[in-house]
DNA sequence: ATGAAAGCGCTAACAC
DNA sequence: GTGTTAGCGCTTTCAT
């Protein structure tokens, strides 16, 4: 609602002086920025894909992403949250760590969506993969092939993804009437070396208790496990079947191509952003209408099983692995 | 310089009110934030590693990184630069695109370090890999094995890394007195599909001109090329030697393990950050001393050749590949 | 050693 | 329609 002439005069001045609006001053005045905070635990291919999902979605809402990495460290997470707060973001997307609950105060009043994992703060909104269900379907795939001694390699049980995947493993065993055997379960730190070590241990058990199949619940541990299998001269899937976690070019190219649980990583990031935005919006409305805060919304994305050639019937039940499903 | 009593009184108040300094207001007042802008062209494992290097270094200087992705798009790059400017960063680390030169005005007066590539703005500071030298050593490795028909798969020559690597390829040929043959050179977009296609083309040439070795100048194109080789039923290194680009778990695990040029990706990111900070500091001093602006500083990091098992003597020269170097 | 005031660049509210 | 003003939270300067 400005006269054409004034409009042109202003636009001219803008061009001549090279005027650029200052986002900081704007945010300060409005008490709210066009930023959104994203705190991830590391910057590896998985997290990069998550971040890309978040960024691409954020762009649609004209939001900038301020990225921090906590490296699972309490100090770094605290610093990240403090810094973020002081930048007045609209909200926060956070991969929680073991320390997040101590930092709850830093999140007070800020819309937060927990991504990939869950901190245990019950009101928190979250977007994650169906860890229980996906692990269950992985292990069920193995029981259906006839495996009864199935080794499981999981993350430390301080992280919700790790407890969920262990739960799914147990569920599947129960479903197949196979007793849970703690000797077949190993815990690592989601990194390659620990998967390597765990697989080495499991495959070195005496022949009568040695697992005929392995479910490895993280991408990097899967790589480690496959390398361990190779070192031992054991053949996949003839001597041992392996279901890995997280799909990638590497999993597809391995010899043999791996059967995996494929996380919808990019979608996870996008969903987190969409969830956050709708949360922010509902909040804005609620503050007008004066509605009470609703409980945390939990989004669960399925992670399908992709059957390739690293799984087959156990070799003591014989039937050579001739009729496998192809990709 | 405050009385102890006042100090305590203030600190108490801080605790009770839950006071948090506002970075925005501070930046506005000081006309400078503790932020640094990082604009990358994509968010894949390579760029994630770059970003991690930048972040880790930035942390030492107590700087936050604001990350943007340009996706090589002129619109997105412009938006990223505009947004960044309005956040008053101390400086900018930028992977330039074909459009960066058009956006030079947006960079006016801001310390900028170009990362990985170079835009051609001569005064710009830059941190990159020694593309010419590394490609030269890759191809020289092949000529020394006895190859004379060496296929080259490069990126489009609009990007400095691509021109540099082609240059190195030519240099190495000249050094071995092998004439440059345009028919042996293919150009892709650094992505897997284009590497696949290029390799398919080169390996389908008539036997008398078909290359006995391939130098593939990007990581993803290398994957594509290896897949193409497999599809054709050609054996590496017996029928064709391949030197790939960028090391990774995938390159190490491929059958056979790949000979590659290993970019010091993380270091590249770190170096960019260090360069930027020293640039900012020298600038601050110069503004006091009134010194003239110095020319752009170019940092060149070496990318060593790692010889594994994907390269050997050409098979028409015979001598079976028995005496290879191991990792 | 402490308090007071001005102003960074912006927007919301109000008067003209 | 257009011009003016106050104030977001901080730092710097100046006065006490």
UniProtKB/TrEMBL annotation, chains A, B:
UniProt cross-references to Pfam families, sorted A to Z: Peripla_BP_3 (PF13377)
Alphabetized CDD domains for the sequence: HTH_LacI
Superkingdom of this protein's organism: Bacteria
Keyword Protein biosynthesis: no
SMART domains: HTH_LACI
UniProt domain HTH lacI-type: residue ranges: 1-30
Keywords: DNA-binding, Transcription, Transcription regulation
PROSITE patterns: HTH_LACI_2
Record's keyword annotation contains Transcription: yes
Signal peptide as annotated in the record: none
PANTHER family, A to Z: HTH-TYPE TRANSCRIPTIONAL REGULATOR GALS (PTHR30146:SF109), LACI-RELATED TRANSCRIPTIONAL REPRESSOR (PTHR30146)
Name listed for the protein in its UniProt record: LacI family transcriptional regulator
UniProt source species: Deinococcus metallilatus
